[in-house]
Amino acid sequence: MLKIKDIRNYLKDSLASQYPDSELRGFYNWIVEYLFNFSNMDALMQADKSLEENNITEIERIVSLLKKEKPIQQIVGYAWFYGHKFSVNKQVLIPRPETEELVDWILKDKPEHKSILDVGTGSGCIPVSLALNSSAKVSTMDVSELAIQQAKENAETLKASVHFIQADVFAEDTILKLNYYDIIVSNPPYVLESDKKMMANNVLKNEPHLALFVPDTDALKFYNTIADIAAKRLNSEGLLYFEIHEQKGPEIVEMLKEKGFSSIELKQDLQGKDRMVKAVWKL
């Protein structure tokens, strides 16, 4: 009879030619959590627990999809972000740890803010997390109706109060759909088209390119436009936060200076890469 501890060897035998050991360990953790709601410690304590036939069938299904380079988060249907499970699908970007750092920065800054606008809803991980961990009135905007549907589902499941706006950030009438805010935050598309050749197939094949890529010739297109919106819709002393491409920090800082923002701070992530920017808007 196969046991929980045998899953490790099955993953190694089936997937070692495609994935490094570190990812295989991650897959094991995902599978035991998904199938049994076990933590890593639970899995260790229950290593000799026998697998039911339906468990084996599901593990085989997961492995077959991993062989096709489907992300484990899309296979199990959720990703963890800032302590909560967010449902994900192919219509939204899978939440990343770097974005958790951005949310954490905003929350730990603890300014006297009453209203927040997130630009680029995706799964809803940013606005929902901000709504759950602050008293601010949170709104979020995305061009994708499918992304908004997914984000609304997450907000409802997690009982977060978020106002949703479907709008194209580049449309002239978008500004008319917005109120005034104390904070505007965005993790916009910033991966360069030229970076595609270095990216894993599980990302390229399964995550929305609309939420990922920008042309090399106009790498700051979203930052420029969102900063212009912020200049019109931030209250005085309002804050603008961005997640950024690690190579574009100085350019974004200079762009914000030219647009009249002040007290600009470039922050590194836990990997030591330039990943976040904060700026103040003073009327």
Question: What does this entry look like structurally?
Answer:
Helix 9 links the parallel strand 7 (191-192) and strand 8 (213-214). The protein has helices at 6-15, 21-36, 40-45, 53-67, 72-76, 97-109, 125-132, 145-157, 201-204, 221-233, 249-258; strands at residues 78-81, 84-87, 115-119, 137-142, 162-166, 181-186, 191-192, 213-214, 234-243, 262-268, 274-281. With 283 residues, it is of the alpha/beta class. It contains 11 helices and 11 strands. The protein has a 7-stranded mixed sheet with strand order 5-4-3-6-9-11-10, sandwiched between helices. The protein folds into 2 domains: 6-68, no CATH class; 89-281, Vaccinia Virus protein VP39 (Rossmann fold, 3-Layer(aba) Sandwich), CATH 3.40.50. Helix 1 packs across helix 2 and helix 1 runs parallel beside helix 4. The chain is 40% helix and 21% strand.
- Architecture per CATH nomenclature, i.e. the level-2 architecture of the largest domain: 3-Layer(aba) Sandwich
Range of helix content: 25-40%
Beta-strand share of residues: 15-25%
Which residue ranges are poorly predicted, with pLDDT under 50 across at least 5 consecutive positions?
none
Question: Sheet with the most strands?
Answer: 7 strands, mixed
Largest sheet, order of strands side by side? 5-4-3-6-9-11-10
- The coarse silhouette is elongated
Chain-averaged pLDDT: 91
- Tally of separate domains: 2
CA distance, first residue to last residue: 70 Å
- CATH topology (level 3) name of the largest domain: Rossmann fold
